[in-house]
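We now fix the convention by which a protein and its fold are recorded. These numbers are not coordinates but entries in a learned vocabulary of local backbone shapes. A record is reproduced here so that you can trace the correspondence yourselves:
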Amino acid sequence: MRSVGARLAGACFASYAVGHASSSEEGKTRYKNALHNIDPYLAARGTSDKPGVVGKRHKPGQTHVVRIALTGGPCAGKSSSLEQLNKVATAEGFDVVTAPESATLMFNSGLLFDDANDTGLLTFQAALMALQLQMERSLTAVAASTGRPTIIVFDRGLMDAKGYMEEDMWNAVLDAHNISEHYVLRRYDGVIHLVTAANGASEFYKFGIVHDDSGKVVYRNETPEQAVDLDNKMQAAWAPHTRHVVIDNQGSFVDKLRRATDAVLDIAHESHPQEWTRAHKKNKQRCGDNRADSSWWVYLAGRFSSSSSSSSAG
């Protein structure tokens, strides 16, 4: 008999995939996906015009790459956070590499889970971890070879998978790759958890077929209660990490984005202190000691001031 966790996971996968397909209003355009065509903007957006000084190297010519797992519950603001971090960090001398969510790559390839059994779910999760591991290793190796201060942000890290399955299946996935949970955790310099809007900003939580803050149609399957439960599971999974930063919904959405960006730059400070110091000084000059909004923050505030914009974040 299938476990409750397996049934829920299977339903979640099926709903995500079906909803994603049904929400498409531009089938022909959507077919030309990110895996088929190079987007010049996406390829260049994370490159700093004025790269900074590397503070930590593994060996001559190879810099230490700051690896960040960006996680959280549904409708937490991850998309907006990535956009804002990219804008600020590149201006401060860091290259920013944004890795896509592995599960999305698999689903967008046409893979559909429809009430999978335990064996099917284990196969999927093991394959998903293999894909994520290889992507992380490849991106890190190439970024390190540039000799430039680089931050890689992973749209969800390996530990996120633990929140979608029961403990026995999680252990089986780890065993399939001959790795431990400790190994998984120490792969990241820091973990930034954005709390779902359903917890603390419930008036902005929307589910079903909705538009995210970039205007893209997305499908969000979880009810507010399910979103909070999933958010709690993500927090619990990552809790053992020594640099686990939880960004709640206190204050405005712009404040939330600012706190997330500051947290990433603080973590980057440990590897590249000279570049962080320059960034910190520039930030104080731009914003002032009272943290008044710079032109970028003013832009963000205007973008997310209306409830319609805020409700669709991330």
